[in-house]
Amino acid sequence: QLQLVESGGGLVQPGGSLRLSCAASRSTLDYFAIGWFRQAPGKEREGVSCISYNDGSTYYVDSVKGRFTISRDNAKNTVYLQMNSLKPEDTAVYYCAADYDPSSVKAMCHIPEGMDYWGKGTLVTVSS
After folding, report:
1. Does the chain have fewer CB atoms within 10 Å around its N or its C terminus?
2. What are the CB-based long-range contacts (under 8 Å, 24+) for 69-75?
3. DSSP letter string, 14-35
């Protein structure tokens, strides 16, 4: 079993930054790729960014490319999402999720229902 806990959400003005963290309960995240997903009111959950467990490959949805950066610290069993130049349309509940040994981080990010474990989410509100 794997438990994921997100933190770092909050209220920020447009153009501001936040760093989300996803901490895992296990002693190791070996073989688990991690993704950040978000869901805004009235919208479907979408994959924002995903990172592999082995070769460091990453995927970003077009709307966040150049603004968000995903990274992982395997020694701390934690994955981060650095979000810069935030826009009001980034407002959503952000979830981290884990997938065991996926074939592709891009595919993983496009199929949230395929993830094995989910956190409970953290709210990000971008507003002036």
Report:
1. N
2. 70/34, 70/36, 72/29, 72/34, 74/28, 74/29, 74/30
3. TT--EEEEEEESSS--TTEEEE
Structure-block tokens of residue 91: 């407002």
Mean pLDDT of the chain: 94
Q: What does the pLDDT look like over 77-107, one tens digit per residue?
A: 999 999 999 999 999 999 999 999 888 999 9
Amino acid at 12: V
Cβ atoms of 126 and 88 closer than 8 Å: yes
Assigned token pair, 112? 């949230």
Within 13 A of 32's CA, how many CA atoms are on the CB side?
28
What pLDDT, in 10s, does the model give residues 33-58?
A: 999 999 999 999 999 999 999 888 99
* Residue type at position 108: M
